[in-house]
């Protein structure tokens, strides 16, 4: 079962209020057969726990890794994945399509 945006944002707020470092990843652009629509969210805490989805499992691992860096550095990142990129095979988006995900620190 997918979490709703309200669940994801409530979780992000709760984690941040508890003192955890938190990042939120948002799908900002898609091309072709990207599995999640623009506006889909994934929230990640400093321990790598996450809720939500930006790609139906294709690139979540890579997004979590990058989110941990964003939490540590405080610098937002725009991540792009697709079959035209070398990251497609590493991150698993080889089913087709492309996706851009913006990751920013909460708080």
Automatic annotation (TrEMBL):
Domain of life, source organism: Bacteria
Pfam families: XdhC_CoxI
InterPro entries for the chain: MoCofactor_Util/Proc, XdhC_CoxI
Domain named XdhC- CoxI: residues: 15-82
Protein name per the record: Putative sulfurylase small subunit (Molybdopterin cytosine dinucleotide biosynthesis)
């Amino acid at each position: 079962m997918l979490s709703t945006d309200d669940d994801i944002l409530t979780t992000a707020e709760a984690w941040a209020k508890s003192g955890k470092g938190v990042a939120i990843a948002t799908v900002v652009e898609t091309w072709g057969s990207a599995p999640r629509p623009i506006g889909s969210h994934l929230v990640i805490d400093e321990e790598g726990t996450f809720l939500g989805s930006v790609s139906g499992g294709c690139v979540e691992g890579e997004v979590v890794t990058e989110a941990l860096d964003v939490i540590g550095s405080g610098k937002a990142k725009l991540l792009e994945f697709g079959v035209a990129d070398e990251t497609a095979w590493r991150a698993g988006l080889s089913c087709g399509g492309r996706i851009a995900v913006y990751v920013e620190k909460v708080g």
